[in-house]
Design goal:
This protein is an alpha/beta fold and about 200 residues long. It has helices at about 1-20, 35-45, 50-60, 65-70, 75-85, 105-115, 125-130, 145-165, 180-190, and strands at about 25, 50, 95, 115-120, 170. It has a 5-stranded parallel sheet, with helices on both faces. Helix 4 packs across helix 5.
Length: about 200
């Protein structure tokens, strides 16, 4: 019994140490659950939660969809990069990144240097099933005909997975639970010799 308690206490310390001063960047395609799970994990592990798109919207007082329509994608991507860099001085957070954040400029490399990157992976059909109900919230698919949406997702995912697969961790977004993040960070510390 005593050895079980010792192992449990040691594991709890490693988990706490793993989360302390964490910078966690959730990447993946739209609809993969980055914001949903980011909020749950942040609350559970007492971290701050941020959604990069919301940070941009709050600063410019416009929706991402409106920014795309009025100022174009190039303007949005530059603003996205600048807002992302604003997290350099923050600690103890989870940031849900936009679907394209990791694919522009040197954003992915910067995130990897700053903290842990987690790709929340879904198949094109799973993404389609999640985003079909809210196209107005998704600027890239807003003007895509429903009959062409799955093909668009497949093609865009092929382009983006070259970046997504460079994340430190890849999680099946359909198999996540409240403890998924803690488990990943614990395994991280264990593999790095912090036992």
């Amino acid at each position: 019994m005593a050895s079980y308690v010792k192992v449990k206490v040691k594991r709890s310390f490693i988990i706490f140490f793993s989360i302390m001063n964490s910078k966690i960047f959730l990447i993946g395609f739209m609809g993969s659950g980055k914001t949903h799970w980011g909020k749950i994990w942040a609350k559970k592990d007492q971290l701050s939660f941020f959604d990069l798109d919301e940070e941009i919207e709050n600063t410019v007082n416009e929706s991402v969809a409106h920014i795309f329509d009025s100022k174009g994608e190039e303007y949005f991507r530059e603003s996205e990069r600048d807002h992302l860099r604003g997290f350099e001085t923050k600690n103890n957070f989870i940031l849900a990144c936009g679907g394209g954040t990791a694919c522009f400029f040197d954003n992915l490399q910067w995130m990897k240097e700053q903290g842990s990157t987690i790709y929340m992976k879904l198949s094109p059909v799973e993404i389609f099933d999640r985003v079909i109900m809210e196209p107005d919230k998704r600027p890239l698919i807003k003007k895509t005909d429903t009959s062409e949406l799955l093909l668009f997702i497949e093609q865009k995912l092929i382009e983006r997975e070259a970046f997504y697969y460079q994340a430190k961790h890849i999680l099946n977004a359909n198999a996540l639970n409240e403890d998924s993040l803690t488990k990943v960070l614990f395994e991280d510390k264990s593999q790095n010799g912090s036992t």
